[in-house]
Design a protein that fits this description.
The structure is a single chain. By secondary structure, the chain is an alpha+beta fold. It has one domain: Chondroitinase Ac, Chain A, domain 3. The chain has three helices and nine strands, in the order H-H-E-E-E-E-E-E-E-H-E-E. Strands 1, 2, 3, 4, 5, 6, 7, 8 and 9 form a nine-stranded antiparallel sheet that branches. The radius of gyration is 17 Å and the shape is globular.
């Protein structure tokens, strides 16, 4: 779904959606990841429409046998890790305080989503993943598969688009939430807006 949207699809429909709800009207556990993915798309819809067919949307999709994926943006290179935490061995892949806000099953923890490069130094993230960024001009660019420091940023904010199409900030991150693990997003965040220096 994220791949199709990054390549120009305007939306998606799933077959058998009625099977995702139990007799009490709750989403069944097996469908939670699908629900989260659809919510991620909904949150980003103003940006999806704006950047449709522009090449500025990048899917985050783990592939069999691949431990990470690199991305090339206008002024930055990026990296999303799939699987074990190489930066902090022995720790979970995602150490971003999400368990304080929501409980997630194993399927929901599969990295997935969209990276949207709205401007050369302005990114929106939706889905469930960590993105590490480094300026292309950095002398340490050859270390993309090793430890990447957090790129210099102005702000990292969680929020959503209101009915007028304006991004409304619900939370501004600071401290460990922005200094460790890169720029991260989970379903409980809505959209994450990253402004870089």
């Amino acid at each position: 779904m994220f791949y199709a949207i990054s390549k120009g699809a305007a939306g998606c429909a799933i077959f058998g959606a009625e099977n995702y709800i139990d007799s009490e009207g709750k989403v069944v556990e097996a469908a939670l990841a699908v629900r989260d993915s659809h919510l991620a798309i909904r949150e980003a819809m103003p940006l999806i429409i704006k950047h449709r067919n522009t090449g500025k949307m990048y899917p985050v999709i783990p592939h069999a046998g691949i431990t990470d994926e690199g991305y090339e943006f206008e002024e930055y290179i990026g990296n999303v890790i799939f699987g074990s935490n190489r930066y902090l061995p022995g720790r979970p892949l995602y150490i971003d305080y999400i368990n304080r806000r929501m409980n997630m099953n194993e399927d929901q923890q599969t990295p997935r989503g969209l990276i949207i490069e709205d401007e050369p130094k302005l990114f929106y993230l939706t889905g469930f993943f960590h993105l590490r960024l480094m300026p292309k001009k950095s002398p340490a660019i050859s270390r993309i598969n090793d430890y990447l420091p957090v790129a210099d940023f102005l702000s990292v904010e969680e929020g959503h688009f209101n009915e007028q199409g304006e991004f409304t900030v619900s939370r501004t991150r600071n401290g460990d939430q922005v200094m460790f693990g890169g720029f991260w997003v989970t379903p409980s965040c809505g959209l994450v807006r990253v402004k870089l220096l």
